[in-house]
Automatic annotation (TrEMBL):
The lineage of its organism: Bacteria, Pseudomonadati, Pseudomonadota, Alphaproteobacteria, Rhodospirillales. It is found in: Cytoplasm. Residues 1-27 are annotated as: Disordered. This is Lipoyl synthase. Keywords: 4Fe-4S, Cytoplasm, Iron, Iron-sulfur, Metal-binding, S-adenosyl-L-methionine, Transferase.
């Protein structure tokens, strides 16, 4: 849903001075139905009851109706206000609130009430915290393990830029999947992701595998921001050099007129080509479609990821 300029100004004060970018009409292959199901309403009510934020709502995800109908939600911890000001993101920017010490327990409670087999936990960037929120991530993982030992856990973390030891804290807590998104190609970082550093993010993913080679790693990018096919291929090569297992590729959608414009809508056929390219480069799994997002079908993808690793190990054993 496109917000008015007035609402956008409240959520994104750093963008208020920017000229409006017209919001392009979406092609037929991207349009989705408005969320109306009973399950959607129940999931929304539970999140309100527990005082939890979700990236599904905060980032205006187009898949919210489908996912919440299945009672799948990506919980966003560390509050709902981000210290970064990325030009693509609809999460509110500003001075964050104090951490809620009850948030990890509330996330675990939501996992139980939704009877989740797989949970994705993400967060805003918290550059104001000494550890970037790493200890809060770790406590959330521990609480989920206590409440629902059979539930698998995927974290989608910030880059923990200049936060010594933060990554190690999260990995030590034992998530099943460690996800950190590169978001776009290096040439566009200054414009799209100005507070981040491409090679730092790449190194973070590589470091996860150095700490624990058995940990699944995952990263995602958006297309339609002005990148070239060659640049996307280079990002794939960079991720494979960091031994990343799983890549997601989705269409960038402009949240408001104050955000980065959509340079073009990538066709479904091109997404299929990018998926095939990624698999040819050695990723265990690649999800690539206009509506693909980091946590879209995450539970099913985790099962596919495990199966792909077993298949690869079996093949290498047979060839030994």
């Amino acid at each position: 849903m496109i917000e008015s300029a007035a609402v956008a100004k409240l959520r994104h004060p750093e963008k208020a001075h920017k000229p409006d970018n017209p919001v392009a009409r979406k092609p037929d292959w991207i349009r989705v139905k408005a969320p109306m199901s009973r399950e959607y309403q129940e999931t929304r009510a539970l999140m309100r009851q527990l005082g939890l934020a979700t990236v599904c709502e905060e980032a205006a995800c187009p898949n919210i109706g489908e996912c919440w109908k299945q009672k799948h939600a990506t919980v966003m911890i560390l509050g709902s206000v981000c210290t970064r000001a990325c030009s693509f993101c609809n999460v509110a920017t500003g001075r964050p609130d104090l951490l809620d010490p009850h948030e990890p327990a509330h996330v675990a409670e939501a996992v139980g009430k939704l009877d989740l087999h797989h949970i994705v936990v993400t967060s805003v960037d918290r550059d104001d915290l000494d550890d970037g929120g790493a200890a809060h991530f770790a406590e959330t993982i521990r609480r989920i393990r206590e409440a629902a030992p059979a539930t698998t856990i995927e974290v989608l973390t910030p880059d923990f830029l200049r936060k010594e030891g933060a990554l190690e804290t999260v990995v030590a807590a034992g998530p099943d999947v460690y996800n950190h998104n590169l978001e776009t190609v290096p040439r566009l970082y200054r414009e799209v992701r100005p507070g981040a550093r491409y090679f730092h993010s790449l190194r973070l993913l590589q470091r996860v595998k150095e700490i624990d080679p058995t940990r699944f790693t995952k990263s995602g990018i958006m297309v339609g921001l002005g990148e070239t096919r060659e640049e996307v291929a280079q990002v794939m090569d960079d991720l494979r050099s960091a031994d990343v297992d799983f890549i997601t590729i989705g269409q960038y959608l402009q949240p408001t007129p104050k955000h980065h414009a959509v340079e073009r809508f990538v066709t479904p056929a091109e997404f299929t080509e990018m998926r095939d390219m990624a698999l040819s480069k050695g990723f265990l799994l690649a999800a690539s479609s206009p509506l693909t997002r980091s946590s879209y079908h995450a539970g099913e993808d985790f099962e596919r990821l495990k199966a792909a690793r077993l298949e690869k190990l079996a093949a290498s054993g047979a060839g030994a």
